[in-house]
Amino acid sequence: MDSLRNYKLEDIFEEIARRSTCSTKPKKDIILVGPPGSGKGTQAPRIKDELCLCHLATGDLLRNAVAKGTEIGKEAKGIMARGELVPDQMVVDLIDDALKMPECERGVLLDGFPRTIPQAEALDEMFERKGKKVDHVVEFKTDDDILVERISGRRVHKASGRSYHVKFNPPKTEGVDDATGEPLIQRPDDNEDVLRNRLDSYHSQTTPILDYYKKHNVLTTINAMQGIDEVYADIGKDIF
């Protein structure tokens, strides 16, 4: 309770009101699937806020575990230092740990995992042990050629993961995050050559999981080439 003394009274009441509103929302576990630049990073914060979910990006989970020096983080650091891929089970264990956080009580929004059928199966097994299941998988269907323009213009707020685009979704002030005023960055791999390689990997490795989830009757396909609000509205028809 002592920690509450560090917060303003209005902030505490605001959090109570938020939790009260969240208690009326359905509990859901959702996976976003789509190639880089398809709009997952733009839509994820809106879905998260609408349904009061926690947003878990596996890359961030790994980096945080390494930075904090957790047991998994130490093991992952050694693996990555050798240039090897982190085992699927290690990523599933990171997600499992994250689900214990209070903010994940109402469900999780997964972005960037699973990317293969073995990963999807491992995630399902973990969820089953926790008495949970994947409720929705949203595919962001795109045109590869148009993604090049999207990627080259993408700008990101590093701390939060909020995503902007210089043309399609510009910040209120050029070059800075709307919420914090901190500078936006362009990721080093946001260029055409890197994108083409990532698209090849996506189509060969990740696309097969769409059939996997289709067989489980949880797949929704969205035309991600629409405007941001139109994409969000289409997602809402199926999962809100």
UniProtKB/TrEMBL annotation:
Alphabetized SUPFAM superfamilies for the sequence: P-loop containing nucleoside triphosphate hydrolases (SSF52540)
Gene3D superfamilies: P-loop containing nucleotide triphosphate hydrolases (3.40.50.300)
Species classification: Eukaryota, Sar, Alveolata, Ciliophora, Intramacronucleata
Native organism: Euplotes crassus
InterPro entries: Adenyl_kin_sub, Adenylat/UMP-CMP_kin, Adenylat_kinase_CS, Adenylate_kinase_lid-dom, P-loop_NTPase
Keywords: Kinase, Nucleotide-binding, Transferase
UniProt-recorded Gene Ontology molecular function terms: AMP kinase activity; ATP binding
Domain Adenylate kinase active site lid: 154-189
Recorded family membership: Belongs to the adenylate kinase family.
Name of the featured protein: Adenylate kinase active site lid domain-containing protein
